[in-house]
Amino acid sequence: DKQRLQELSVNALDYAATHDLYSMPQRAASLIEMLATRK
C-alpha cells in the first residue's frame, strides 16, 4: 500500500544517510593487504 511504500522510502533514505555504503571494497582490500604482509 501507499503508506507502507512511503515508510520504506523514508527508512531507506535514512539508512543511506547514516551508513557507509561505498567504502567496503576499499576496506576489504586494505584488510587483505594487511593480512598478506603479516605472513
TrEMBL record:
Superkingdom of the organism of origin: Bacteria
A Gene Ontology molecular function term of the record: transferase activity
Entry keywords, A to Z: Transferase
Protein name: UDP-glucose--(Heptosyl) LPS alpha1,3-glucosyltransferase WaaG
Source organism: Pseudidiomarina aestuarii
